[in-house]
Amino acid sequence: MANKDSGRPTHLRMGLSGSDVSIRLRLRWDTAPKACAAVLGLLPLRHQVWHAKYANNEIYMLCQMPDPVPPAESLTVYPSRGDLLYLPLPQGVPLPPGIPGVGEGELALDLAYFYEAGNSLLTGPHGPIAGTIIATAEHLDDIDLMAAACRDVWFKGAADRQMWIEAA
Fold first, then answer.
1. Residue 13 falls inside a structural domain
2. Angle (nearest 5°) at CA 114 between 160 and 63
3. Which residues span the domain enclosing 96?
4. For residue 2, is it within any domain?
5. Residue 19's closest CA among 166, 130, 164, 167?
6. Where are the alpha helices (DSSP H) in the chain?
7. 119 - beta bridge partners?
8. Number of domains making up the chain
9. Measured between alpha carbons, how far is 123 from 15 in angstroms, rounded to an integer?
């Protein structure tokens, strides 16, 4: 759905391959307009899904940084359940090989969805990494359904699974 005034999308849809579950997220144009625009320029995305090791209840994908890179907006180190964060990874964070659009020595973007409460981006081995909230789920029932699919990634593994994001 597009905003009548600007023609820009107001929502994203995010899901996981191997699951019939997806979630509609409201773009946070009010607090992160530059980051929202930058991510929309990358869509649609479909890449390997990963489950967080340090931030708790998070799934994420890694992809190329947008050009130009937007400034930090609406930063948090305590994302809520249903938040989608834009996390530019700092230099020195080890990355797996083969991230689409990311060459050796280049920075990568982490697009992270948080599916339960109790998350913290303070305690990883590379120190705190604040992220920009770019979208938020609007319906608790949808968050619960997506959380079950995310826990499936945690318990059964992420091999051959992909996370996808598209404008809705």
1. no
2. 50
3. 30-167
4. no
5. 164
6. 33-40, 140-156
7. none
8. 1
9. 27
Say how many C-beta atoms besides its own lie within 10 A of residue 128's C-beta: 10
CA distances, 111 to each of 4, 34, 102, 161 (Å): 27, 15, 14, 15
Check: pTM over 0.85? Answer yes or no: yes
Q: What is the CA radius of gyration of the chain?
A: 15
Per-residue pLDDT of 7-31, as tens digits, reads: 899 999 999 998 999 999 999 999 9
Which CATH number characterizes residue 112's domain? 2.40.100.20
Is position 1 within any domain? Answer: no
Task: Please report where in the chains the tokens 């990963």 appear, as a residue.
Answer: 50
Alpha-carbon distance values, 155 to 57, 144, 149, 150, 152 (Å) = 12, 16, 10, 9, 5
Q: Which two tokens stand for residue 89?
A: 């990874």
* HSE (side-chain half, CA atoms, 13 Å) at 149: 23
Range 100-117 average pLDDT:
87
Task: Please give the C-alpha separations between residue 65 and each of 3, 4, 62, 146, in angstroms, as whole numbers.
Answer: 25, 29, 9, 26
